[in-house]
Amino acid sequence: MEMGFVRGKLVKNLLSAPLRDPVKYSLMGYEVSLRRAEAALVEVVPDDPQLPQAADDAHTEANDDAPVATNIHSREREITVALIGNPNCGKTSLFNFASGAQEHVGNYSGVTVDAKVGYMTHGGYRIKVVDLPGTYSLAAYSPEELYVRRYLRDETPDVIINVVATSNLERNLYLTTDLIDMDRSMVIALNMYDELRELGCKLDYELLGAMVGVPMVPTVSKTGQGIKELFDTVIRVYEGREPAVRHVHISLGDDIEAAVRSLKEIIKANRSMLPQFSPRYLAIKFLECDSEVEEQLKGQPEYEQLCEIRTEARRQVEELRNEDVTAAIASEKYGYIDGALAETMTGERQTSTRPTAIIDAFVTNRLFGIPLFLGVMLTVFWLTFAVGQYPMGWIEAGVEYLGNLASELLPPGPFTSLLVDGVIGGVGAVIVFLPNILILYACISFMEDSGYMARAAFIMDKTMHRIGLHGKSFIPLIMGFGCNVPAVMATRAIESRTSRLITILINPFMSCSARLPIFVLMIGTFFSAHAALLFFALYALGVLAAVITARLLRRYVWKTDETPFVMELPPYRVPTPKAIVRHTWAKGKEYLKKMGGIILVACVIVWALDYFPHHDEEVPSEVVTNSATIDPTHDSFLEMIGKAVNPVMEPLGLHWRATVATIAGIPAKEIVVSTLGVLYAGNDTLDDTALGGRLSTSDFTPASALSFLVFVLLYCPCIATLTAIGKETGRRRYVLFSALYNTLLAWLAAFLTYRLALLLT
Ligand code: GDP
Ligand code: MG
Fold first, then answer.
1. Tens digit of pLDDT for each residue in 254-272?
2. For residue 263, with 0-12 CB atoms within 10 Å meaning exposed, 13-18 middle and 19 or more buried, which class applies?
3. pLDDT of residue 108
4. What is the spatial distance between Cα 190 and Cα 31, in angstroms, rounded to a whole number?
5. What does the alpha-carbon distance between residue 16 and residue 220 come to, in Å, rounded to a whole number?
6. Is the pLDDT of residue 684 over 50?
């Protein structure tokens, strides 16, 4: 309902996704996708002359409520301003512009998931600006709505900026009506005003502002136009000097108003009931059987009485209107908006999504949609891996040069070894992936900012639905092929908590780019004749593990998905290069931080375990390749660990060196290859082809190499991914699950692979 599926609205069926599900509809000038099963829940009737009447001024009446209590902030001249609005209306752009922050902006709902705080000074005030997640209303339905409501309840910002997309006022103002009920100090930012102007529409926003009793300021947050005026108004409202501020009631019709009034009287009499919210707001929400408000009123002595009034009122309203109270309230509010807009807006009222319609005719076409999508994905991979090869080569050469330089200039000894093998070798092996990561993110940013990402989710929804997931899960899974860490973070766009958890937990099975060097090395050494086939088989095995895990989790752990697939399909927008560079760099920085932290420490540890306790005499390399002849007292710590754990790995055909490599790979998968290099090469400098030659004459057989590949593909995610899982889910048990389940699955799969390979050869 809050998205506009209410009585009296025209719904157009635009097109269905290439797999026939979901379907794109247009409604109130914007586009939304619904699965067929969910669309079936919306009752559509032919045109009816008895549509709700447009509202007029009689709809509003003067305020008779006491003003709502707000926190008196002790520190003068600092005010808190919260940005509230629909997803994708430009809140974060506004936030970034005002506070100079660089938060993620995307043409895609659900980019911002928790409150972001920034500061600015304006008009002698220090203003704390808070960017909140996008919501369509303040019902206690989605996590974002609850989040925003709790924020309003607990933090009581001094002034609310309600950001609305002027190109889609009708739906955006619905949230405004909820905020008006709340009766807080508020200013409306008519954002994306440029889009309205482009359409040739005229909006008398001063009149509209006077009608709803909230001052309105046109803004274009992409360029910063109007933001100064917006904050000027915010300060005027805060100081109580803004003439446009007036409290209005959006009339909900006589029957509902009567019920609201009697509930309100009781609530008003007892001011201990949630003083942060206005009595009218509480009364309306209570009438709607809002679970949060119910929960909070439960302790009050008058609760019984409130319930009685409500039951009676609901019965009456439903009898009279033949409609559920919640639906009736939504209809009345939309009626009010309709009326207000009819009086203040001229010209084509809706975004004529012409270019969007044309592009979508191809992009979501039944014939071209999927090939086009696959083409886009292939291009992204090609750019990431093939084009990324060149800068990768340069960085590799640079790292090698640095290593050589250090070993030439410094005297041999533990310190030089630490620097060359540990720090430069280890971190260098990882830093070479920076170009791939940057390219991947530039592509993803482009897809997000242009609006294609929402279409990708639309196209893939049916397929993803088969494994109990959501179309939106597809993007993080694809991103997982690059790196699981940002992919896990990208799941924030998924509203449904269970879908999100499943997507997070299966993400590590998407073979990340750090595992690629291992595949290249082993496949190149043992299976060069069938390289392409094997690469494909490995990636496919990863996907299979993900699918099986998702299905198991859906069957046994989270049985139902609580939120339907209702996703706004934003109009296509041309991404600004600045925004893309900004996102790409933000990700690059994150990656570099990971280098500087976790991977550096891991490299030093692996180096130390390999170097000590015994490293004062050079061991001839022939001796090293044949472990049987090594005196056990000469073992490094790393070897000891490997040998201790090895009994577990023996059924997989793995020798202790392979075991050590997998353990060393837990901090970061990149370390697997460098560890193999160290273990099989004495202390030679790393050289892949030479290492391959050594591996082929070592204790690896084709069968054990295959089992090693499968194990490395599936086992415990790297520490950075585990950290991301912990941070995103907020629960340690999912981290534990991911580490244990994946390792167990890897062991089983590797065991089967090994036995099968032995049988076949
Ligand atoms: P949020 O979801 O409300 O935080 O919205 P974002 O700030 O992420 O912006 C959503 C999209 O709208 C992005 O593609 C922005 O570049 C674009 N956008 C934001 N403000 C404006 C504006 O004033 N005019 C236009 N034309 N586009 C805008
Ligand atoms: Mg945002």
1. 889 999 999 998 888 876 7
2. buried
3. 56
4. 20
5. 33
6. no
Where would I find the H helices in 213-302? 227-238, 254-269, 279-287, 291-297
Say how far apart CA 372 and CA 196 lie, in whole Å. 31
The number of the ligand 1 atom at minimal distance from the alpha carbon of 87 is 2
**568 DSSP β-pair partners:** 32
Q: Which residues pair with 27 in a beta bridge?
A: 11, 30
22 upstream amide cis, omega within 30 of 0:
yes
| Inter-CA distances, 50 with 2, 8, 45, Å | 21, 9, 12
Contact 148, 292 (CB under 8 A): no
pLDDT of residue 56: 38
Query: Which residue among 222, 446, 569 has the greatest number of ligand 1 atoms within 8 angstroms of its CB, and so is best to mutate?
Result: 222
The CA distance from 301 to 287, in Å, is 18
Atom of ligand 1 nearest to the CA of 106: 8
Look up tokens 């694809």; give the residue.
478
List the structure tokens of 655.
């020798």
Which residues, in sequence order, are CB contacts of 466 under 8 Å at separation 6+?
Answer: none
User: pLDDT (tens digit, 9 = 90+) per residue, 461-503?
Assistant: 888 888 888 888 888 888 788 778 878 877 877 777 888 899 9
* DSSP three-state, residue 30: strand
d(CA 285, CA 140): 10
State residue 630 phi and psi, 5-degree precision. -80, 135
Return d(Cα 250, Cα 180) in angstroms, integer: 8
Quote the ligand 1 centre to 456 CA distance (angstroms): 20
Q: Is residue 191 within 6 Å of ligand 1 at its C-beta?
A: yes
CB of 88 within 6 A of ligand 1: the answer is: yes
Is 112 near ligand 1, meaning CB less than 6 Å away? yes
Q: What average pLDDT score do residues 539-561 get?
A: 90
What is the pTM for the complete model shown?
0.68
Per DSSP, the residues of 284-348 read HHHHTT-HHHHHHHTTSTTHHHHHHHHHHHHHHHHHHHSS-HHHHHHHHHHHHHHHHHHHHEES-
179 CA → ligand 2 middle, Å:
19
What pLDDT, in 10s, does the model give residues 151-209? 888 888 999 999 999 988 888 999 999 999 988 899 999 999 998 888 788 899 999 99
Centre of ligand 1 to C-alpha 178, Å, is 22
Quick check: CB of 324 below 6 Å from ligand 1? no
| Residue-averaged pLDDT of the chain | 82
Distance (Å, whole) CA 655 – CA 679:
12
Distance 454 CA to ligand 1 centre (A): 15
Rounded-to-10 torsion of CA 440, 443, 444, 449: 160
Is pLDDT of 68 > 50?
no
